[in-house]
Every structure is written in C-alpha cells, then in structure tokens.
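User: Predict the full complex structure for these chains.
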Amino acid sequence: GAVVSQHPSRVICKSGTSVKIECRSLDFQATTMFWYRQFPKQSLMLMATSNEGSKATYEQGVEKDKFLINHASLTLSTLTVTSAHPEDSSFYICSAQARTGEVEKLFFGSGTQLSVL
Amino acid sequence: KQEVTQIPAALSVPEGENLVLNCSFTDSAIYNLQWFRQDPGKGLTSLLLIQSSQREQTSGRLNASLDKSSGRSTLYIAASQPGDSATYLCAVDGANNLFFGTGTRLTVIP
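Assistant: Here is the predicted structure of the two-chain assembly.
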C-alpha cells in the first residue's frame, strides 16, 4: 500500500528557533497534502491544505506566517514552524491524498512530536 | 504495533436509516479514540473524541462508544441524511502516535 514518510518523528528545540517537518509520499504522487496538529487530550485538527505548486489554504486561527507550508513537488510537502514557542509544542501529522480511479484515499505520516523549551 | 480496522469498507443506506460504523484496534492501551469524516478533496473533520476513561460521546445525531477491553468502538448515526455521505475514519491515540483505520465510505441515498 501507499506509504507516507514523515520526519523527524520527534524534535526538541529552543524557543525562537525554526523547525522543519517533511512529509513525503514514497510510491505515489500526492497533489494534495494536509497538515494537522493535536494538543494533548484534544482532537486532531486540520491546520492547512497544501496543493502542489500553489499556496496552502489555512484553517481559521492558524497563522500562515508562523506555519510555512511548501509543496514544491508531487511527493514532498514541508511544514516549517517559525520562531517556535512553547505553546507550539504539539503533535503534528501530515496526510497525503491518493486517487485510484474514482476513489480517493488518505494516507498518513507517522507524526512529529514537537517540544519547544 | 497498533492495528486499526474498520468494517465495512463501504456502506450504502437509504435516507432516514440509522446505521453503525465499526472500528476495532488490537492494543487496548490507548489514550483516546477519535472519529472523523472526510469529504472528497478535503481534510479530516473531527466528529467525536472519546477519552480512554469514557464509554461514549454524543454530538447531535452522532453517538460514539468505546469498549477498550474488547478493542472496539462504534459510531452510530441516527436518521441518516444525504449530507452524511463521506468517508468516516477512526483513529487511536497511543502515546505520541496516531493510528488510523482505513475508513468506511458511506453513501446515503436520497
């Protein structure tokens, strides 16, 4: 089956630094990728929708200047958390959309646990 | 490793029917279980979150139950409507990792 690789799985950084998370579709082309985050004991929430070659669409309340999304190719999307602060500590996960005929399926990365000190 | 299974993979029902979607998981050591819907071309929308200490959660026409000991959760949809047509996914939260089911594609026929 389709595989989505997400790196790193865990990152600890100092406040004020930037962190880049990569999401790759390994054996299929993903025209659309989604980024989510989950705070402890809360639901997974959609942050943004990333379409290859165009600007990402951010959900309400998500700062586009803080969470930079780049989807430069059909197999790679990156999320950069700029000037990270402790309140950005969260679990981030990506998913990539694959289409087989008329059927769309979502495949998920394994997630990144970000801890900002 | 946690494995999450959803049955059936696809389901078609006439409008107005009540229906149940099933989610099973192999490792009962979970923090919570979440149900989502996905519309074509869109990201996931969170429906219900059940903490590991809870047995069920309700939101409108939706009711989700959790039986940790048997590794099962159900999503009950009452009085289904065509607007409920979507893919429904469950996800199990197990300590800094989310394990997703493969989803059930629901079609509600007017």
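The first strand of chain B starts at residue 4 and ends at 7.
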